[in-house]
């Protein structure tokens, strides 16, 4: 495998009540774990955020307040946290814009619910940082925003991008379907696509580090040091 792993790498994606990493809450979280032997395993969970989900957020991920709150809703974050932590184990973490969004939101949610989780000794890789630093000539007007959809198109090709984009088809999502059957901004599908993007980036950029620690250092370094 092009990425040298000494332990699992868990790619994660969060659907939430909004973009404020301090005050917004997790609604759905998806994990895809890449083992050193190249095999993948996944986990996706929803939770009751404890606050109403704004309509703007529902339009993104299709999850309504009534789907997760109340008698027939989902458990609160602290109830699903043990399963999430067990799945992560001692793995390093990967995401798309995770350094700026998913990771601080996750850490704040853990703190809010008294869940013990530490980044000490873990690598943190962000495929969007790699996208930003390696494609400095990207034209937003001609090529679109630097989002996950366009990253999949740019790195993984049109066929995979077309399949992936189906999760964003217009119209109301099938909210009667199970979590695993829903495609609209499904956290686990986004996480799986992010992992594909990272592996494609490693194929494309021969000068990228081939270890998680090296990629961690690349993503954490000041912009002028990453080029």
Helix-strand layout with pairing:
Layout: E1 9-16, E2 26-34, E3 40-46, H1 55-61, H2 65-68, H3 77-88, E4 92-95, H4 98-112, E5 124-126, H5 127-134, H6 140-143, H7 148-156, H8 158-165, H9 187-204, H10 212-220, H11 223-226
Parallel strand pairs: 1-4, 4-5
Antiparallel strand pairs: 1-2, 2-3
Mean pLDDT over the residues? 89
What is the N-to-C order of secondary-structure elements (H for helix, E for strand)?
A: EEEHHHEHEHHHHHHH
Distance between the termini: 24 Å
- For the biggest β-sheet, the strand order reads 3-2-1-4-5
Name the CATH superfamily classification: Ribonuclease H-like superfamily/Ribonuclease H
Q: In percent terms, what proportion of residues is strand?
A: 5-15%
- The percentage helix is 40-55%
Indicate the CATH topology.
Nucleotidyltransferase, domain 5
Number of domains: 1
- Globally, the shape reads globular
Compute the number of strand runs: 5
Q: Please, how many helices?
A: 11
Alpha-beta classification: alpha/beta
Report Rg. Answer: 17 Å
Largest sheet: 5 strands, mixed
CATH domain class? Alpha Beta
CATH architecture: 2-Layer Sandwich
Low-confidence stretches: 170-183
């Amino acid at each position: 495998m092009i990425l040298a792993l000494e332990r699992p790498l868990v790619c994660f994606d969060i659907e939430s009540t909004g973009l404020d990493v301090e005050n917004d809450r997790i609604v759905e979280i998806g994990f895809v774990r890449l083992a050193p032997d190249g095999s993948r395993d996944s986990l996706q969970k929803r939770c009751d955020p404890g606050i109403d989900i704004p309509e703007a957020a529902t339009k993104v991920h299709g999850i309504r307040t009534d789907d997760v709150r109340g008698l027939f809703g989902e458990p609160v974050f602290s109830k699903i946290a043990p399963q999430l932590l067990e799945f992560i184990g001692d793995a390093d973490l990967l995401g798309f814009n995770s350094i700026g969004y998913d990771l601080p939101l996750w850490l704040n949610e853990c703190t809010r619910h008294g869940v013990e989780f530490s980044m000490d000794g873990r690598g943190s890789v962000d495929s969007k940082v790699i996208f930003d630093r390696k494609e400095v000539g990207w034209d937003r007007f001609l090529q679109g925003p630097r989002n996950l959809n366009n990253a999949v198109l740019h790195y993984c090709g049109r066929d995979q991008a077309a399949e992936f984009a189906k999760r964003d088809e217009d119209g109301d999502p099938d909210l009667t379907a199970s979590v695993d059957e829903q495609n609209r901004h499904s956290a686990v599908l986004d996480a799986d696509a992010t992992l594909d993007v990272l592996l494609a980036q490693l194929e494309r950029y021969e000068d990228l580090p081939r270890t998680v620690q090296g990629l961690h250092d690349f993503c954490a370094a000041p912009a002028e040091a990453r080029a």
